[in-house]
Amino acid sequence: MNSQGSPLSGLNRLRPPNIPPPRAVAMGLTALLGILLVWSSVFMVQTEEAGVVLTFGRYTRLAEPGLRLKFPWPLQTVMNVPVQRQLKAEFGFRTASAGVRSEYARGSFDDESLMLTGDLNVAVVEWTTQFRINDPYRYLFKVRNLFDPSGQARLDTFRAMNEAVMRAVIGDRSVNEVLTVGRQEIASEVERRWQELCVQYETGIKIEQIVLQDVNPPDQVRPAFNEVNQAQQEKERMINEARAEYNAVIPRAGGEAQQTIQQAEGYAVDRVNRARGDAELFRELLAAYRRAPEVTRRRIYLETMEAVYPNVQQKIILDASLQGILPLLPLPKGGVIQ
Amino acid sequence: MKRNTRIIVISSLVLVGVMIAGGALYIVDETQQVVITQFGEPKGDPITTPGLKIKLPFTQRANYFDSRFLEWDGDPNEVPTRDKRFIHVDTYARWRITDPLLYFQRLRSEQGAQSRLDDILDGETRNVIASHDLIEVVRSTNRAFVVSEEIGGGAGGVVSDSIEFGRSQLAEEVLQAARTRTEDLGIEILDFRFKRLNYVEQVRQEVYARMISERQRIAEQFRSEGAGESARINGERERELKEITSEAYRQAQEIKGRSDAEAADIYAAVYNRDSEFYRFLRSMEVLRSTLDSTSVLVLSTDSELLRFLGRAR
Predict the structure, then answer these.
(1) Contact B159/A119, CB-based, under 8 Å?
(2) ipTM of the complex
């Protein structure tokens, strides 16, 4: 800035003394410009993010986490995308505050969770979708209104995709499958179809997991479902009771049958042994008898009489020649032996 | 020279300033495409690549359009199916501006496009739904339901194994019909899907009532199965009990009979050696066991024992 000999040099004298000279203003402006330049050339990418660098709106490169450099605005701009973070969307419910004991937002999300099953019944299905952004370029530039992390948006491609896929899968299952055995299979089927759809729509999203939360019959129908469970328990109970009675009776009867048989065996042994004993006795006796028949016979007779007579209190002895006395006797109860 | 340099620098700065102010430089974002118009007349091909672009200042205008997949969300509609069931149908579609110039000429703005899509897609949805049964819209395949043991067999509500089209094919039908109608609008519908299907409130109550009665049916089945099974076990118990006791009785009697017969044989064999002596011995035994203190004996002196009482001979 050479002002020597210039017609303007005379004006310098007219300048108020407290205004800084133009040189100082220029320096100040340059410094300010420099600071702005540096400030808009440095950017930070957080650990879980990737920085998408655009040159005049055109995708140029991807920046790793850390302190990075770029050309200053308006040449280059940066958009950070959380590629490492696991993102989550909830359907049919909302977590109000997550924690050890999470709280869930009140209010009805029936619109989201109520769906028709393949047998034209209704089930309430709540689920969460966990996903990651694996292609920041597609995530940012291929689909409009792809995902709103706050979950408030009504027009959200991501939510629409989720609902459509889940309903298509549920629509091909019976209410029984949905409520009981099919849970795992449904989750994996949704996962598969969902990933296909993500590729088709070029969302740059990679599905990590579909987790079915509460899957219930609608509130009004629930008591009837509980009744089924109850009836099932009742059935088990009745069968168990019958089995208990069976178990109480049958083994015992088996034992008692053995007892009866053993008793009969005992009887048989007893009977045969006694018969053999009696026979042996008779045989011995007969042998003795045959050696002296007359004497033995008389001896036995007399021995018997000897044993018998003392027992009998009333004895009437009649002479053999007497006749017709018998009718006169006052006979006691008992018997008469002649 | 110095002065010349200065003039060049200053004039070029002024030129850049004028170009920026006049809109000769413009940026096309990754998400955008541009149609250049000059006093309303389209100039050149649409610009679909992102970056810094140049046009004539002042006279030319850049009209920006989105190049992404755009959303269309159907109005939740109450639609009757062919089998006269009223359902709420909520749909969505994805579309894209494929020919920005044509789009600009036909629809002017996205608002116009959305309203055209409303007309076309809502209408086609109605047509397709109304010409198919509800089950066709709900199910996708003829997949057989997995029947679980715990719930009991055949416990489903409406089971149909004659799905002719299915959900995805109906969506495809809507998509195809809508595509032909949007061909000349410079847009392409990429995908159309049924998002939500639900019974209208009144039908829903009926369905709930049916579900309840169905569950009751299953519950009754369980109870009846329980009672039946319990009766079967009781019957089995009674039969087995009878079987066991009668079998034991039979065996016992057999054993006893056999032993009785054996005893009888033994007795017969030995007593037959001298039946007369046997009779004598047995008589003696009977006398011993039958005569007691209450008996009265009337004896004659003729008797064997008392013979000597009368006269000793």
Answers:
(1) yes
(2) 0.70
